[in-house]
Structure formats: structure tokens, C-alpha cells
Design brief:
Shape: rod-shaped
Helix content: over 70%
Order of helices and strands: HH
Largest sheet: none
Number of strands: 0
Length: 77
């Protein structure tokens, strides 16, 4: 549960919630605007999720590269 979330994920979730709240508060009169905000929020949320996953994979590759460099230096020496 100690997982860190990208700020874009949080922003997207908040935007989606605001869009939903807008639709519910106006009893459907702002449906078009609410759906637009929900859609925008979902896209931002997914962008944040993809960025977080990319950074995790990049860090994993960096760790593996450092491990391989260390192994090569030990074999050379």
C-alpha cells in the first residue's frame, strides 16, 4: 500500500470527480460539460499512470545496467 502515485494520476482523479460532481449537482443539466471534464480527467489520469510505469521500468533498467557494469569490472580486475 506504500505505492507512490504520479501527480498527474491524482490530478486526473480529481478532475474526473469534479466532472461527476458537476453532473450530479446540476441534476444532469451540465451533462455535456461534465462528461467533457470526466473524459479529460481520465486521459490525464492515464497519462500519469503511463509515466509512473515508464519511470519504474527506466529505474529498473538503470539498476540492471549498474549491476552489469559492476560485474564486468570485477571480471576485468
Amino acid at each position: 500500500m506504500g505505492e507512490r502515485y504520479d501527480p498527474l494520476e491524482t490530478l486526473g482523479a480529481v478532475l474526473s470527480a469534479l466532472g461527476l460532481a458537476g453532473v450530479l449537482i446540476t441534476e444532469g443539466r451540465a451533462l455535456g460539460l461534465g462528461l467533457l471534464i470526466i473524459t479529460f480527467g481520465t486521459v490525464v489520469w492515464k497519462m500519469g499512470e503511463m509515466r509512473r510505469e515508464f519511470n519504474e521500468k527506466l529505474e529498473s533498467l538503470r539498476t540492471e545496467l549498474e549491476s552489469l557494469k559492476g560485474r564486468g569490472n570485477a571480471a576485468d580486475g
